[in-house]
């Protein structure tokens, strides 16, 4: 070999060696950084099963993040509770109990949720109304009684619903940010944040994971899914959407679609989770403020977007709109947003018809 050949050979090998080093790092260095897969489950927040899945450097690092998620969600659960008191804590039950009497000083976390609730009221055209608690309580009580004793299941009294509906003006929730107080100026108004609370709390929990350095995590809080980064192998998190017909025994397909998520949330509102039956008619928990009855437009609505809190509000709001109105709502919310912030949706109707926004199917991995 000539002197020129001996000099040229290392020069030719250098780019190849650099390429191999990059491939090795991507295959081994990245996996070493994200580590092994761990999971944790807890049952004491938002009356549902909660799972945290993550890839991390070691079990101690994962435990730090999962325990922080649990602690934060438990704090939100207690703050947002409208049925139970907790020693030393002013929560939504405290606020409701003092309706028409006096302002209640509360944690800033609760102030922020209520401010978001007022925003959700605006962008859903009033379909999501945190001031609707008096109406929702009537349905809640009859549903609970009907589940316990199905033979005597009954609907709420129509006159009682009408009286309660007269006390749902969201402007009567008076928030004083400077003094961190909430006052219900209508003595009969009651707050209920069921349409937004879980998604909002999941969003805050996701931020907590990221603040602690988590880059490959999936939060599944009662079906509210938030993906942080991708899985350790670089693939998207696999997140299915339940098929309502499967719950009814009318389909063999458990999932309507299976999505792949990275840095996005997936939230579904449906009529098949919390319901009871009166005279062979199903009455679910998503109540339309205009009719004071369960919404009948769809079987389920799924929202796919970055922010879990907004997704929760929109899934509830769009469930109570016809599909065309829902599309217009999303178009309005998407104005000025970049690709990473865009909202996508899927509607499933009673006859099984599925409708999608233009970008939703980009995230679908499997339709079986």
Account of the protein in words:
The chain has helices spanning 3-34, 59-80, 92-97, 108-123, 133-148, 158-165, 197-211, 244-247, 308-319, 323-334; strands at 36-45, 48-56, 104-105, 173-176, 181-184, 217-221, 224-228, 237-242, 255-261, 265-270, 275-278, 281-284, 287-288, 293-294, 300-305, 344-348, 354-356, 364-366. The termini are far apart. By secondary structure, it is an alpha+beta fold. It folds into two domains: 37-79 and 195-366, T-fold (Roll); 88-184, Orthogonal Bundle (T-fold). The strands form five sheets. Strands 1-2-6-7-10-15-16-17 form an eight-stranded antiparallel β-sheet. Strands 3-5-4 form a three-stranded antiparallel β-sheet.
Keywords:
368 residues; alpha+beta; T-fold; three-stranded antiparallel sheet; 10 helices; 39% helix
CATH class of the largest domain: Alpha Beta
Do you know the CATH architecture of the largest domain? Roll
**CATH topology (level 3) name of the largest domain:** T-fold
Order of helices and strands: HEEHHEHHHEEHEEEHEEEEEEEHHEEE
What percent of residues adopt helix (DSSP H or I)?
25-40%
User: Which strand order do you get reading across the main beta sheet?
Assistant: 1-2-6-7-10-15-16-17
What fraction of residues sit in β-strands?
15-25%
Rg over CA atoms: 24 Å
CATH superfamily of the largest domain: ApbE-like domains
Average pLDDT figure: 91
**How many distinct helices?**
10
Low-confidence stretches: 1-33
Please report the distance between the alpha carbons of the first and last residues: 61 Å
**Total number of strands:** 18
Largest sheet: 8 strands, antiparallel
The global form is globular
| Structural domain count | 2
Structural class: alpha+beta
């Amino acid at each position: 070999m000539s002197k020129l050949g001996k000099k040229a050979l290392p020069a030719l090998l250098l780019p190849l060696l650099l390429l191999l080093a990059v491939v090795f790092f991507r295959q081994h260095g990245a996996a070493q950084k994200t580590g092994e897969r761990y999971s944790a489950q807890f049952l004491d927040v938002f009356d549902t099963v909660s799972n945290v899945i993550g890839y991390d450097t070691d079990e101690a690092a994962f435990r730090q993040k999962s325990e922080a998620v649990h602690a934060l969600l438990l704090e939100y659960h207690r703050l947002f509770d409208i049925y139970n008191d907790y020693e030393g804590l002013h929560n939504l039950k405290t606020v409701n109990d003092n309706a028409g009497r006096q302002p209640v000083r509360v944690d800033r976390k609760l102030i922020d949720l209520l401010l978001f609730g007022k925003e959700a009221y605006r962008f859903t055209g009033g379909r999501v109304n945190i001031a609707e608690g008096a109406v929702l309580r009537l349905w809640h009580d009859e549903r609970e009684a009907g589940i316990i004793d199905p033979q005597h299941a009954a609907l709420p009294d129509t006159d009682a619903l009408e009286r309660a509906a007269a006390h749902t003006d969201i402007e009567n929730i008076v928030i004083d940010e400077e003094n961190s107080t909430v006052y219900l100026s209508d003595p009969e108004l009651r707050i209920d944040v069921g349409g937004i609370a879980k998604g909002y709390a999941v969003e805050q929990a996701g931020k907590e994971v990221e603040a602690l350095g988590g880059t490959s995590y999936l939060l599944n809080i009662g079906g509210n899914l938030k993906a942080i980064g991708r899985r350790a192998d670089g693939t998207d998190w696999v997140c299915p959407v339940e098929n309502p017909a499967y719950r009814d025994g009318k389909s063999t397909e458990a999932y309507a679609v299976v999505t792949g998520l990275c840095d996005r949330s997936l939230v579904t509102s449906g009529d098949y989770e919390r319901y009871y039956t009166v005279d062979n008619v199903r009455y679910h928990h998503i109540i339309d403020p205009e009719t004071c009855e369960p919404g009948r437009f769809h079987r389920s609505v799924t929202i796919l977007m970055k922010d879990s809190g907004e997704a929760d509000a929109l899934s509830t709001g769009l469930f109570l709109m016809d599909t065309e109105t829902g599309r217009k709502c999303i178009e309005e919310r998407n104005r000025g947003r970049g690709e990473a912030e865009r909202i996508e949706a899927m509607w499933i109707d009673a006859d099984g018809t599925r409708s999608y926004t233009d970008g939703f199917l980009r995230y679908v991995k499997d339709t079986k």
